[in-house]
Amino acid sequence: MAIKIVTAKKGEEHVTSADAGALNQGTFGTDDYVLNVGEKFRAELVSNNEIKIYDGEGMMQGRHWRIEPGTYESVTIDNGSQGKKRKDLIVARYTKDSETGEENVELAVLKGSETEGNATAPEATKGDIRNGDLRHEMVLYTVTLDGLNVTAVDAEFSVLMTSVEEKEKLADYVKIVPVDLPGLTLTAFGSKNLTINAPQISGYKNLISIGVKGNGDVGLTSSTGSSWVYNATDRQRKWQSLTAYFLYIKI
Question: Do 148 and 239 belong to one domain?
Answer without folding.
Answer: no
